[in-house]
Design brief:
With 241 residues, the chain is an alpha/beta fold. The protein contains 8 helices and 6 strands; from the N terminus they run H-H-E-H-E-H-E-E-H-E-H-E-H-H. It has one domain (2-237): Aminopeptidase (3-Layer(aba) Sandwich). It binds zinc ion.
Length: 241
Amino acid sequence: MQNIFLRRGVGLLLCVCGLAVMLFAVAADDPTRGQAVAARAERRRTLVIDAGHGGEDGGAVAADGTPEAEINLAISQRLCMLAELCGVQTVMTRETDEIDYPASAETTAQRKKADQMQRVEQINAVPNGVLISVHQNCYPTASPRGSQVLYAATADSEAFGTLLHEQLVQTLDPENRRVAAPISRDIYLMRNVQCPAVLVECGFLSNEQELALLRDPGYEVKLALVMIASYLQYWTTGWVT
Ligand SMILES: [Zn+2]
């Protein structure tokens, strides 16, 4: 069953890459189209991958003790690897579980705040960035499950987030009835970044079956595949900004 999904994910990625090649081929024959594609290439985007939490902030914790930060980093590393395989320029806000906190931040709360401020600064310094922030959900009861994409208020975020959410549902979880939604203004990082930005809640750590999936390297690759395929698909249809 999982192999079918993986093949579907790989198929989706290959289709998107094929579409990109076709668009460039068409552009070569059509001067107007060629100019548009060239202009877009000049504004080459960089995918900024934010593995949520890390350092002293483990995020949510699963019943078996697995911290959210660990799963976020594993999925983000796979996303980065696939993105680079597709020729997409990437930046990661963290590549390990270590965070460099400023000496002035003395308490855990101050360090968490400083980390978020550093990430916002890093993300906003990337020219033509597009942010995917990777997180996991958690709930007091075990039944909720399923991924959900939350999008920032910046241009392109809603359209990209909606596409990504639909692809996650279609490819990995057709029973999922959640929809992409605007993110709460309480989330400092998502409120302060200036680029198109989405936060992917990949699944619920509080659901035993979903936790097993989220800890499965094969499933993590599938999640990353859908993210990069959706990124490429949205890129080929043209960004608004
Ligand atoms: Zn989180």
